[in-house]
Amino acid sequence: MKYKLLAASVLATLSTSAMSATYQLSELGAVEGAKHSYISDVSENGHVIGLANGVYKLPIDISYIDFTESVIKTAYNNEKDAYELSDKVITFTLDDIEKKDAINTNPDAHSFMVRFLSSLSRNFEYQKLNSLIAVNFKDSNVIEQPLFDIASVDYDGLTRSTTNIYNAVSEDGVTVGWGSAPYDKVSFTPDGKTEAESWFTHEFIERGIVVSADGVRVPLTPEFNEYGGTSRANDIVKTANGYTVVGNISTAIAEDRQENITDRCDNKDEPTSVCVYVLNTSVTSGVFDKRAVKWQLDSALNIVSTEILGLELTPKDDDDFAFTSTANALNKNGIAVGSSNVRYYKKDSTILTMPTYFKDKAVVAFVNQEDDWQGGKSLAINESNVITGFAVKRIEGTLRNKFFYHDIKTGDTVFPTDYFSSSSSFGNDINNKGYIVGEGEVGASNSSRRKEAFVYKIGDDKITNLNDLLPCFEADGETTFAYTMAEAKVINENNEIFGVATKTVEKRNSLGGVVTDINGKTEFESVAVAVKLTPLVNGTVESCAPPEAEVYERNSASFPWYALLLLPLVGVRRLFRF
After folding, report:
1. DSSP reduced 3-state for 278
2. Predicted confidence band at 321 (pLDDT cuts at 50, 70, 90)?
3. Which of the 8 DSSP states describes residue 447?
4. What pTM does this model have?
5. Closest-CA residue to 322 (of 225, 261, 254)
6. Is 125 exposed, middle or buried (0-12, 13-18, 19+ CB in 10 A)?
7. Measured between alpha carbons, how far is 73 from 69 in angstroms, rounded to an integer?
C-alpha cells in the first residue's frame, strides 16, 4: 500500500519547510540479543533513547522448581497436546529440562518455560521475567542502559526481572525513566507449614530514575515510601542551574486500601510485599494516592526541591478511591502537561482520567466532557504552549481514542480529521513549527485494523500518512519497499521524524536461532525497528498503485501479529504515563 496522493494544501505546507514531499528512512541500529526496538525520545542535539523487547536467551532458574507438581505437569501436557494438534512431535521432556539443561540447548524447551513462568505472573513462588529493556542509540550502536536491574546470584548476567521504562532525554544527554526493583529469591514459611519455600519478592513496585550522560544512576525516592512507595520520571528539561524533571509520586495510601493492607497483608500466608503488590494490581486505582510532581535538580543531579503539582478534583471524606495525577511532558516555560482524575459532570461519584496541564499552581482539564469525552492524556507541549495528546469517546458503540491539539493561550481544543471516523489516533509529539506526529488505525473493519504513522500541520484539514511519503521500491527499483511506518514518536525542529517501522526478517526462536519449517526452509516474521525519517528537499511524491488498490487494501488488509505487540507499547511514553 503505497499510493502517493496528497491534498494540494498539504503538499504546499510541507514544501515551505524543511519537510519535503518525501522522506529517507534509516534504521537507528540493531539491538543485539533482542527482537524488537522502539523510540522513546530524541533531544535536539541528537541524543536518542528507546526500548527493546523480545530479549533472547532469557535466563531461567529451575533450581527451586519441583517438577512433580501438578502445575508444571499440566502445563507440559497442554504443550504436548498443542504439538499434536499441529501434527508436530514435541522435542523435549520435563526430565530434559530438569536434568539435561534443555532450557539452554533446546529452543522449544526454553520457549515453553518462558511461557510457563509468564502464565504465573501473579504467583510469586515462581521466577519473574521481563524482556523489555532500556537502550541508548549511539552512532549505529545500541547500548543497554540498566535502570534498577542488578547481577543475578543464581545465573550469569542481570536478573531480567525488572520493569524498564525509558522516557525522555535532555539536550545534553541526561535521561529519565522509571522501573521496578529486581526480584530476590527468598525463603519463606507460610503459616501452617513446616518447610520453607522459595518466594520472589522485591523492594518497590516502581521508582523514577535520572541517569547522567555517562551512566550514573540517581533514584528519585518518594518522601512517602511505605511499602516502597512509587515514583515515575516522564520528562526532563535542562535549565541554567541544572534540570527540571516531571512525573508523579506517591503521597499517601488511600484509607480503604490501608484497611485492605492491614486486614490481608500480615506476612503469614505470603510475604507482605507480595500481598501489597497483588492489591495494587487488583484495583483500578491502585493502592497509592499519586500526584503529578516537578523536581528541581542541580547540575550534579541532587534534588533541590520537590513541588507537588496537584489534582484537578478535591477528594471528599467518603471517596473510596486512590486518586492520581501525572505530568507527562514539560516545556521551557515551566508548563507541564499530563492527566488527572476528575469528576464526571453527570455524576460526581464517577471518576474519569482526563487530559490536563499544570500552570501557576492550577490543574486545568480542558477537554469538554459535555461533548461525550470520557478520558485521555496530554502527551507533549511545545514552546508556544500548544499541547497534543488524545481523548477518549464512544464512537459507533466502541471507546476510541482521538488525537487533539489545545492552545493554552486561546483555550481552543481541536480534534483534526484523522484516517476515518472510528479510527483511534494519538498525537505523540509537537514541534515549535506546529507539526504533530502520531499514529492512527487504518483498515475499515475491526478485524483488519493496524496502526500507521502520520504527520499533521496545525491548520490543515487532515493528517498525512507517512507511508505515503516513503519510496515505493528499494534501490533496485523492483523490490517493494521493506518498511511500513507504524508509530511516529518524535519530531524535531528540523522536521526529522523518529519512530517505529515494521519489516520482514528471518524468524528467530527464543534462544536467537533462525527458525525453519519441517522442510528445512527458513521462516520469516515481522519485527519492530527504531527508525529516523529525514526530509528530502528535492523528493517527489510517488504513485505506487492506482487509487482503487489503496482503497481495497485499507478495507481488506489482515490484522498482522505485530500489531498485538505494538499496541501495548503505544508509546511507552503514553501507555505507562498514568
Report:
1. helix
2. confident
3. G
4. 0.90
5. 254
6. middle
7. 6
